[in-house]
């Protein structure tokens, strides 16, 4: 009868070479060295990775501090289902929780750092059955002023923010000008379509109501070739011509008598 095959423990990594199990503990990651200006706040970042499923009810985070000079190690912060800031010591009212357990983040913020904070901060995370593993360490150095590299980095950030703001302002102004220009063009097109075209009047043409009819009698002017004098104009009226002929006939008749 064959023995029953047992399932593998998810918290154990089996090495293929010799088949011997190797316990996989908690892995914690922190920045090795950090620098902060005296009187400012600094975020001590700590992340972790557990092979077991995260259980907020049993997971714990412990922060401790070991001074650079002589002195004993002391507790900085503790977390288990909720934050437990220190109630005494140099970090009282200076350590604040800034992590997210389900996001594998166990970071804290140390406010208003002092020169007495020069030393090593240790971050340890336990998530049973991952109760053993490395502790992340951060060596903090408190200085009077920021180093040249940090100043350059800060200047680049501020300059980039200002440059981005200027670019956004220029783009906004350009867009507004384009919109105003298009609105004016549309307004002009509407005016051209609505206002009827005014017909041009011929200045040589008079309105019938204002026309003045001039009647001129047609007269003929005879020029005497002998002395160059202008004789009286004769009327073109037929009636006057007939009267002149009659008078001429009567004169001729009288002379014949």
Task: Describe the fold and architecture.
- A hairpin with a 6-residue loop joins strand 7 (60-67) and strand 8 (74-79).
- Among the domains are: 20-145, Immunoglobulin-like; 146-193.
- By secondary structure, the chain is of the alpha+beta class.
- The N and C termini lie far apart (189 Å).
- It is built from two helices and 15 strands.
- The longest helix is centred in the middle third of the chain and has 47 residues, at 148-194.
- The chain crosses the membrane at residues 151-175.
Shape: elongated
Overall strand count: 15
**CATH class group of the domain at 20-145:** Mainly Beta
Strand content: 15-25%
Rg, rounded, reads 58 Å
Low-pLDDT runs of 5+ residues are 1-23, 214-221, 232-237
CATH overall fold name of the domain at 20-145: Immunoglobulin-like
Strand order in the largest sheet? 4-13-12-7-8-9
Share in helix: 25-40%
Order of helices and strands: EEEEEEEEEEEEEHEEH
| Corresponding CATH superfamily of the domain at 20-145 | Immunoglobulins
Structural class: alpha+beta
CATH architectural arrangement of the domain at 20-145: Sandwich
Largest sheet, in brief, is: 6 strands, mixed
Distance between the termini: 189 Å
So how many helices?
A: 2
Averaging pLDDT over every residue, what do you get? 75
Summarize the structure.
The chain is α+β, with helices and mostly antiparallel strands and 257 residues long. It has helices at residues 148-194, 238-256; strands at 12-14, 21-23, 27-30, 33-37, 42-44, 46-49, 60-67, 74-79, 83-84, 95-97, 108-110, 119-126, 136-143, 219-220, 234-235.
